[in-house]
Design a protein that fits this description.
Gyrase A, domain 2, Alkaline Phosphatase, subunit A, globular, alpha/beta, 10-stranded mixed β-sheet
């Protein structure tokens, strides 16, 4: 029988079972599975093995009502929350990209022109946590142990590895063109074990391999047909099984590496790399507690192509379960799971394909939104209201539902930003697909109300956000032609798993409302650390 408890009961049971003991795990593993909606773990549970997701569902703690509390549920913003306990309003990572409000230059969340990607075969822009404000559990662990604890973060995406690893990590590694790389922010040269792993050509070994269904055909019936209007085909990957990974090219090159990003095999390679990190960095094999962060991203890439109700998403979820089971078996053999604490969550969910909704009822309010069309509509409205600008100047730019004003446009027309904010707000509020619109003035003053308003505040940073911020209505997605997307404040994007297993964890299913921002202060408390400096979450155990 599963335990169900309120937040108070969690604390009571913790004291009764001796949770607050002096025992510390030898290794903490924090896993983020990109775009893993919580409902997948219920819908697909019949297909899971005993030692993957069921390690948590049967023997761990499942906080089943965990949501992101911010509005812009993007990869960068989500991973910045996981081990900091803070949101974009304070840590500055408001999305994957934003614009400089003065120059309107595009800024990537982990870009750093002062850093260099080690052994990059081109002049790629550097990467580091420079844009992240505050610190993480890993940073606190390094400080508390005078650097003796090892903190390693590995992921498919650079932003996943960097934002979970933090500023004092011993290493943050991500996949680039078939090799794991890092930044000279962390290390001046690649560790020998990483070079050795790259020489194994694990990624290249999948060239030409097929992705076929893991389960019997009847297992996929709950997902409907293998192909739905709205799914996206790219790089030689069709909308139905099987799929061949060669990028449509005759040999290994850029197209193949791009196609590999959409394959389930990326998770397999990352798990092998994580094993190599445990072995070579001797994680969990010292007196101090070590931290390993792992960011699986194949689920996100596949979900973007085919949507949450596809055969592909069911298949990658079950395959991920097998990858986890194998990795946990490795940890058990290497260290003993009784010496580990493992936490699993996700950075966001994903919206269903609008076409699938409209097929059921074509009057249902759902659809696709082209951000470029929204931008042009606002531009045209401003020209009509205030007149055209001289030369080739523009009024506005848009990034992740944020409208930025060109300062030169306001100067030329002698307009105060607040006046234009109000005009754009009133204009956008009339759009059928708009749920809410907030101005910079309102957000700076905190003059917003309700759940959506609070979520918007947590995604607003005064030095990085635009002048007008809008939220789409449920089931409208920012993908103009096909594919699925996220980044909304709605439950299909915010509701994610929060699983705990191992040292310091009281098993059970808890339905009290929790946030992903609660992970960092809870883990810090379990390790006897102060929470990260900007953390706003609460202690669950």
């Amino acid at each position: 029988m599963k335990l169900r408890a309120t937040g108070f009961m969690v604390l009571f049971l913790a004291f009764q079972t001796g949770l607050y003991s002096t025992q510390a795990p030898r290794l903490v593993v924090v896993i983020s599975i990109d775009q893993l909606r919580y409902d997948y773990l219920e819908r697909f549970s019949d297909h899971f093995g005993e030692g993957g997701f069921n390690l948590f569902l049967k023997s761990g703690a499942n906080f089943a009502n965990t949501n992101y509390r911010h509005s812009v549920t993007a990869t960068g913003a989500g991973h910045a929350v996981i081990l900091s306990g803070s949101h974009g309003n304070s840590n500055g990572i408001i999305s994957n990209h934003w614009l400089d409000p003065e120059t309107l230059e595009d800024i990537y969340c982990v870009a750093d022109r002062t850093a260099i990607i080690i052994d990059a075969d081109d002049e790629a822009e550097g990467r580091s946590p420079r844009n992240f404000i505050g610190n993480t559990v890993g940073d606190q662990l390094k400080l508390a142990t005078a650097g003796r604890s090892r903190v390693i973060s590995v992921a498919h995406k650079d932003r996943s590895a960097i934002l979970m690893g933090g500023k004092l990590a011993d290493g943050a590694f991500w996949l680039r063109n078939g090799d794991y790389v890092t930044s000279d922010y962390y290390q001046k040269i690649l560790p020998k074990w990483v070079e050795k792993f790259n020489k194994l050509d694990k990624v290249e070994s999948y060239f030409g391999q097929k992705w076929e269904k893991l389960l019997p055909e009847e297992a996929y019936a709950s997902q409907g047909a293998d192909y739905f209007l709205g799914e996206r085909a790219t790089l030689g990957l069709g909308r139905t099984f099987p799929k061949t990974f060669d990028g449509g090219a005759a040999s290994i090159g850029e197209q193949f590496y791009h196609a590999f990003f959409y394959s389930p095999f990326g998770n397999t390679v990352l798990a092998e790399f994580a094993k190599a990190a445990v072995t070579n960095e001797k994680l969990g094999q010292r007196e101090e507690t070590d931290l390993l962060c792992i960011g699986f991203s194949a689920n996100d890439a596949i979900g973007h192509l085919y949507g949450p109700d596809s055969h592909e998403v069911l298949d990658i979820t079950v395959r991920t379960d097998r990858v986890l089971e194998d990795f946990f078996g490795f940890l058990d053999e290497k260290l003993g799971l009784e010496n580990c604490t493992i936490v699993l969550t996700a950075d966001h969910g994903v919206a269903p394909l609008p076409e699938k909704i409209l097929l059921a009822n074509d009057r249902f309010p759902a659809g696709r939104i082209d951000e470029k069309v929204v931008l042009q509509d606002v531009e045209n409205a401003l020209v009509e209201a205030f007149g055209p600008l001289t030369g080739d100047k523009s009024w506005v730019e848009v990034s992740y539902d944020q409208i930025y004003f060109y300062p030169a446009a306001l100067t030329e027309k002698h307009l105060a930003s607040g006046e234009v904010e109000n005009f754009v707000q009133e204009y956008l509020e009339k759009k059928e697909f708009i749920q809410a619109v907030y101005t910079r003035t309102e957000l700076e003053k905190g003059e917003v109300t309700g759940k959506l308003g609070h979520q918007a505040l947590l995604s607003f940073h005064k030095n990085r956000s635009g002048s007008v911020f809008y939220q789409l209505k449920p089931f409208y997605v920012r993908m103009p032609e096909n594919g699925a997307n996220h980044s909304s404040p709605h439950s299909y994007d915010t509701h994610v798993p929060l699983f705990w297993y191992g040292v310091g964890v009281t098993p059970g299913t808890y339905t009290t409302s929790t946030g992903v921002s609660d992970l960092a202060p809870t883990l810090s408390y379990m390790l006897g650390l102060d929470a990260p400096v900007l953390s706003t979450g609460r202690i669950l155990f």
